[in-house]
Write a structure and sequence with these properties.
about 0% strand
Length: about 140
């Protein structure tokens, strides 16, 4: 599935002739990539705190961060626009993946809280019913 995604991304990068960035807005785009990667990093930290398996996300994040550093600090890129497009695709993929896992973790937390509260309500109802029946028997 990842190979299919990468093939589609590469095909769209090679065959689309529309430049994404112009030289005038490069610094703004680098700042936006920094913000997006920071948001992904915060999501990864949240997932680490919840002890959720994120090994696949960590490898993609390391590759994306390496590519971002290369774009930011290297002035000798051969095809800057294609690299920016590829970085944009990888960053959006990471954002989707981490947001999906974070929402899943939050839903699991909600389900856990509901399960525990319903269990306590059932225990309390059974205890009250037992007390009521016991008091009626005497």
């Amino acid at each position: 599935m990842i190979r299919k995604f990468m093939i589609i991304v590469l095909m769209s990068v090679f065959f689309s002739g529309i430049p994404i960035l112009s030289q005038g807005v490069i610094s703004n785009d680098i700042q936006s990539f920094e913000k997006r990667l920071k948001a992904v990093d915060e999501s990864i930290n949240y997932l680490k705190n919840k002890n959720i398996d994120i090994n696949d996300i960590l490898t993609e994040y390391a590759e994306t961060e390496r590519l971002f550093r290369e774009v930011k600090y290297t002035s000798e890129l051969k095809d800057y626009d294609m690299t920016i497009r590829f970085l944009s695709q990888k960053t959006s993929f990471l954002e989707e993946k981490t947001l999906e896992r974070v929402s899943l973790a939050k839903r699991m937390d909600l389900m856990y809280i509901l399960m525990v509260s319903m269990g306590l309500i059932i225990i309390l109802a059974m205890a009250l019913y037992s007390i009521y029946k016991y008091s009626r028997r005497k």
